[in-house]
Amino acid sequence: MRRSRRKRDHSGVPRPRGVSPDAAPEISITPMIDVMMSLLIIFMVVTPVLTAYGAVLPDALNHTPEPHDDAVRIGVSRGGTLFIGTDSVPRNQFSGRLRDLYEQRPGDHLAYLWADRTVDYAVVLDAIEAARQAGVRTIGAIVNPPETGEQGAPAATGGALSAEPVDGSVASSSSPGV
Questions:
Q1: Most confident of 8-17, 122-131, 156-165
Q2: Which of 22, 38, 51, 131 gives a 20 to 30 Å CA spacing to 138?
Q3: Torsional class of 80: left (φ above 0), alpha (ψ -120 to 50), beta (otherwise)
């Protein structure tokens, strides 16, 4: 029986000629990382396009009313009609009317938003974008207090954001930069 002339390392695998026993094979992972980053970017760009905007609004359980008589309220009704205060405003005039309103209020960059929970989220985003273009930097949410069932417990049908604010009160939460 003839033995192989190739030398074997400690694992028993033959080593090619001219390769030192101390040389360790290394796999370059740079191309794999490049491919993974490319796929990540592609999926981040494509995913929002493939999915329709949608949001399930939570019910307001801890409603703390804060009266703001001079606060700017913008709204979106069930049919997608835009409002500034209680005045209905056509979509093409909405941003301009808000801009005119905020020019009279130079230090005020706050608006409160109410929207019907059945309206498309894209319509609400359009109203928010129009408010941003008019100079609004902080948007707070107007919520209706939940309907209470027996012994003060919230009813199952309580709504978080509905067609109009019930008492003109404003929720205590607002989010800057929205």
A1: 122-131
A2: 51
A3: left
